[in-house]
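for the recovery benchmark. tokens below, seq after
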């Protein structure tokens, strides 16, 4: 295992913002006046701690600029509510849209942070009615909240799960429509520790949900991946001295290369047919 010890923000290019959006996405800032492919997603597509994220791998093979519009801890709501960033993606030849978990979206039961969607902000009255015994001031992250609620009552949690999945589908339809259907969905699945509902990314998203979206998009790329700590995929990572625990749970450089190559092949097929 080898990695380079630098400050947490040491990745080349850092972050940047586009077109009036307040969301800090993967830098460096790119020229949007020429044809490009957009990549929307969270920590995985951003490539946290990874010098060459999967979008850069695809770009090197396609010889077409691939603009990484992903952000650390972003979720589906991040992009569904950011009209400026959606405009950037809409102007792309195609958009690779990561399939992100259904737990990180605002809904009738709870609100999440508008940009860092993994953060729990507030329980809504229906959630307090469904789980009246819970002190919601103890929670800062959605996954902690939901795993706690599931442990209290599987039956009541099933109501919450069904609602989250329904809202997720509505948001996905919204984003895909905003991008005029020129979308390649990327489902990078990998296992984490936890219950059956929360032990795999993307959380609470099943094949039936993805199947209902297939007719609206140009394609679906499904990849079974592994976090860096599970497969010792640290070579070439850039991180601070205290970042190793977090780095174990993200996709490492080798996985970014593999996924970037797979996406490039699919995008080349699309370009040939178009």
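predicted aa per position
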């Amino acid at each position: 295992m080898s990695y380079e010890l630098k400050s947490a923000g040491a990745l080349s290019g850092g972050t940047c913002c586009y077109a009036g959006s307040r969301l800090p996405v993967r830098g460096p800032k790119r020229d949007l006046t020429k044809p490009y492919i957009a990549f929307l997603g969270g920590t995985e597509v951003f490539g946290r701690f990874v010098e060459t994220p999967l979008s850069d791998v695809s770009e090197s093979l396609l010889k077409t600029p691939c603009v990484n519009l992903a952000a650390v801890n972003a979720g589906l709501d991040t992009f569904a509510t950011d009209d400026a960033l959606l405009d950037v993606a809409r102007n792309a030849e195609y958009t690779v849209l990561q399939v992100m978990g259904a737990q990180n979206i605002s809904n009738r039961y709870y609100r999440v942070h508008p940009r860092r969607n993994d953060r729990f902000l507030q329980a809504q009255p229906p959630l307090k009615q469904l789980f009246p015994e819970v002190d919601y001031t103890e929670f800062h992250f959605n996954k902690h909240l939901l795993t706690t609620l599931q442990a209290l009552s599987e039956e009541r949690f099933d109501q919450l799960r069904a609602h989250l999945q329904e809202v997720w589908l509505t948001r996905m339809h919204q984003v895909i429509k905003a991008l005029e259907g020129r979308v390649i969905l990327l489902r990078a699945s990998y296992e984490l520790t936890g219950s059956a509902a929360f032990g795999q990314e993307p959380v609470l998203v099943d094949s039936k949900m993805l199947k209902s979206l297939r007719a609206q998009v140009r394609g679906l790329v499904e990849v079974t991946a592994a976090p860096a700590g599970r497969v010792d995929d640290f070579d070439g990572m850039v991180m601070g001295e205290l970042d190793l625990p977090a780095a174990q749970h993200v996709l490492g450089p080798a996985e970014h290369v593999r996924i970037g190559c797979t996406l490039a092949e699919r995008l080349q097929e699309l370009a040939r047919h178009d």
